[in-house]
Automatic annotation (TrEMBL):
Natural source organism: Artemisia annua
Record's keyword terms, sorted: Magnesium, Metal-binding
Annotated Terpene synthase N-terminal domain residues: 212-389
CDD domains per UniProt: Terpene_cyclase_plant_C1 (cd00684)
Residue ranges annotated for the Terpene synthase metal-binding domain, each copy included: 448-644
PANTHER family given in the database record: OS04G0344100 PROTEIN-RELATED (PTHR31225), TERPENE SYNTHASE 10 (PTHR31225:SF9)
InterPro entries according to UniProt: Isoprenoid_synthase_dom_sf (IPR008949), Terpene_cyclase-like_1_C (IPR034741), Terpene_cyclase_plant_C1 (IPR044814), Terpene_synth_N (IPR001906), Terpene_synth_N_sf (IPR036965), Terpene_synthase-like (IPR050148), Terpene_synthase_metal-bd (IPR005630), Terpenoid_cyclase/PrenylTrfase (IPR008930)
Molecular function GO terms recorded: magnesium ion binding; terpene synthase activity
Biological processes annotated in GO: diterpenoid biosynthetic process
Cofactor: Mg(2+)
The protein's name in its UniProt record: Beta-myrcene synthase
Organism domain of life: Eukaryota
Pfam families: Terpene_synth, Terpene_synth_C
Length: 646
């Protein structure tokens, strides 16, 4: 049917009816032949095509259309009235299995015993909100003339593609790909909304509100803070002195390496960096420096030392494991009895460089062996192996690993009570510092007022702060965590403007204003962008000022360049989405290495290191450009894998 047959004077209900005919008469016949549907998509389609859902769209106008309603009131009406397609008429609620469903779906709105029901409700609601918005049925505005033409493709294809992201079989790619290029790492489902003070249709990602309120964060306290916990600090100093003595007394090389390994995994190594450095240097020159000493070590000593030494920058070749291989380059059979050695070899293999085939083969062999023999191990070693097989130690976040290892180490036979007491005490004392960092960042976030003025964006301050702990949890990095939390919050919010809420013209204006770094250009921006730009401008200038007072040089030109590149990459992706351009893999990765925000974050990290001059900054940037690129590439691809649909 021709969707353009709607007359110019058609009312909103008539437009809905026409669209319903298009949707149920045209799409229902062709959808299976035109698209590949997963079982989940078939189930969703079944709900949407239910008879009472069709009747609802065909005959019943939505209260409030054409009246002056704000977007929240409008969504509330739809939230209640568009629950009909979720359930079979007269059936039991699939959640509580008690109440019968009436045709209007009232119970579906109020039954909260199952998260899945709410999710399904939101999915159906947002689909139908999109259907209405595509024909111009939005707040304070009914469908204008030619509303279908502006979509750029036939209404059936556009609505269907938005519905559940089908993989097209036969339609021309140019008609479909406009929706394929939504930014991969923006996995939240989107719907359409209308600005309350202007007739601009905007997307919204329907982000859930934050779980942590400002008052809750500020109410948190710890008895381990520096002001309240003097007795804890005194006890920690006593324990640290005991550990230093222990490091000096241990003579057995394996025992020294195991102690260093325990200190690292317990998260307290930073108190003993000099002692650890001296111990590793002694072991390196005793056993690892020259090949004639390699044959004197067993597998456990070799593998554990190899990992720790490479981790600390020593050049230890993979050939050190050659003595443990037979003529076929497999591990000698008698080594299979050394479970600890096999586990340490497995962990060591993840420190391999490119083309180190001995380590690559060792990883494959030890992985297979550890999986097959897991049931034969005692409880302690079994927990270590299971943990390692999930993720190797080299891939784990140290702070999270420390909490897990403290609990495991405490159950170990022969554990050192001094180490476990210090580890627990230090964990709590450092956590108290993290808490103060979070409270300070929370006060900054509240002062921006972005959580209220930019309510379309993600309010994810706590998550952004948690990321900085993963980056560096050490107590002396407190200023860095506070700064990077602000940087991450800026990135998250501005990303939502470029990715979801802002129009193409608006984001180009915003990009121009930031590139020129001219506060006077704020008057040319829409109101919501004025708040965002000024908050961003003030925060970056504050970071610049702090760097100047602490380090003595001006970081602003480098920050402006990094942020400008980030926003340009956001604009590129927005243009891809709007134009329907499908980038090549090379195009996508080239832009994605910047849009993932790695260069911006690492530029701020540079300013927090020992760099104290503009010349040092330039040298550091030149030396680290490959590290920045490759780490950003890993960040980009890992993030895409984590948020892409299956």
């Amino acid at each position: 049917m021709d969707a353009l047959s709607v007359t110019n004077g058609a009312s909103a209900p008539q437009m809905v009816k026409t669209l319903a005919k298009c949707y149920f008469c045209v799409i229902e016949k062709d959808i299976v032949s035109k698209y590949s549907l997963s079982p989940k998509q078939v189930a969703i389609l079944s709900c949407i095509r239910a008879q009472h859902a069709q009747d609802f769209l065909f005959t019943i106008p939505i209260d409030g259309l054409g009246q002056k309603m704000n977007h929240r009131q409008f969504r509330s009406v739809l939230c209640y009235r568009l629950t009909v397609p979720m359930f079979s008429e007269g059936g039991l609620c699939p959640s509580c299995n008690v109440h019968h469903m009436d045709i209007w779906g009232d119970h579906a709105v109020h039954c909260s015993s199952e998260v899945g029901v709410k999710f399904r409700h939101k999915l159906v609601r947002d689909i139908l909100v999109d259907i209405c918005s595509k024909v111009g049925i939005i707040v304070r505005k009914e469908a204008p003339m030619g509303s279908f033409r502006r979509m750029g493709m036939s209404c059936d294809l556009q609505t269907c593609y938005y519905l559940i992201g089908f993989k097209t079989k036969n339609y021309n790619a140019k008609r479909c790909r406009g929706h394929i290029c939504s930014r991969i790492y923006s996995s939240q489902s989107t719907s359409m909304a209308i600005s309350a003070d202007e007739n601009v249709v905007r997307r919204t990602a329907n982000y859930e509100p934050t779980l942590w309120s400002y008052d809750h964060i500020q109410s948190l306290s710890s008895k381990y803070t520096l002001l309240q916990g003097e007795e804890y600090a005194a006890r920690a100093n006593i324990l640290k002195n005991s550990v230093k003595m222990l490091l000096g007394e241990v003579e057995n090389s394996v025992s020294i390496l195991e102690l260093v390994n325990d200190l690292q995994r317990l998260g307290i190594y930073y108190h003993f960096e000099d002692e650890i450095r001296n111990a590793l240097e002694m072991i390196y020159y005793t056993y690892y420096k020259t090949p004639d000493k390699w044959g004197k070590m067993d597998l456990n000593l070799t593998a554990l030392g190899f990992r720790l030494l490479r981790q600390h920058g020593y050049q230890v070749p993979q050939e050190i494991f050659q003595n443990f291989l037979d003529n076929t380059q497999n591990l000698k059979p008698h080594l299979l009895e050394e479970t600890a050695g096999m586990l340490n070899l497995y962990e060591a293999s993840y420190h391999a460089f490119e083309d180190e085939t001995i380590l690559d083969n060792a990883r494959a062999f030890t992985t297979k062996y550890l999986k097959e023999n897991l049931d034969k191990m005692d409880d302690h070693i079994s927990s270590l192996v299971t943990h390692a097989l999930e993720f190797p130690l080299h891939w784990r976040v140290p702070r999270v690993e420390a909490k897990w290892f403290i609990e495991v180490y405490e159950e170990k036979n022969g554990m050192n009570p001094i180490l476990i007491e210090l580890a627990k005490l230090d964990f709590n004392m450092v956590q108290a510092i993290h808490l103060e960092d979070l409270k300070q960042a929370s006060r900054w976030w509240r002062n921006t007022n972005w959580d209220k003025k930019l309510s379309f964006a993600r309010d994810r301050l706590v998550e952004n702060f948690l990321w900085t702990i993963g980056f560096n949890y050490l107590p002396q990095f407190s200023h860095g965590r506070r700064t990077l939390t602000k940087v991450n919050a800026l990135i998250t919010t501005i990303d939502d403007i470029y990715d979801v809420f802002g129009t193409l013209d608006e984001i180009e204006q915003f990009t121009d204003a930031t590139n020129r770094w001219d506060i006077n250009l704020i008057e040319e921006l829409p109101d919501y962008m004025k708040i965002c730009f000024l908050g961003f401008y003030n925060t970056i200038n504050e970071i610049t000022y702090n760097t100047l007072t602490k380090k003595g040089f001006v970081i602003l030109p480098y920050l402006k360049k990094a942020w400008g590149d980030l926003f340009k990459s956001f604009v590129v992706e927005a243009n891809w989405y709007q134009s329907g351009h499908i980038p090549t893999l090379e195009e996508y990765l080239e832009n994605g290495c910047i849009s993932i925000s790695g260069p911006v974050i690492l530029m701020h990290v540079h300013s927090m290191t020992s760099i104290s001059s503009t010349q040092e900054m330039m040298q550091c940037m030149e030396l680290s450009k490959d590290i920045v690129r490759y780490s950003s590439l890993i960040f980009r691809l890992t993030d895409d894998l984590g948020t892409s649909s299956v």
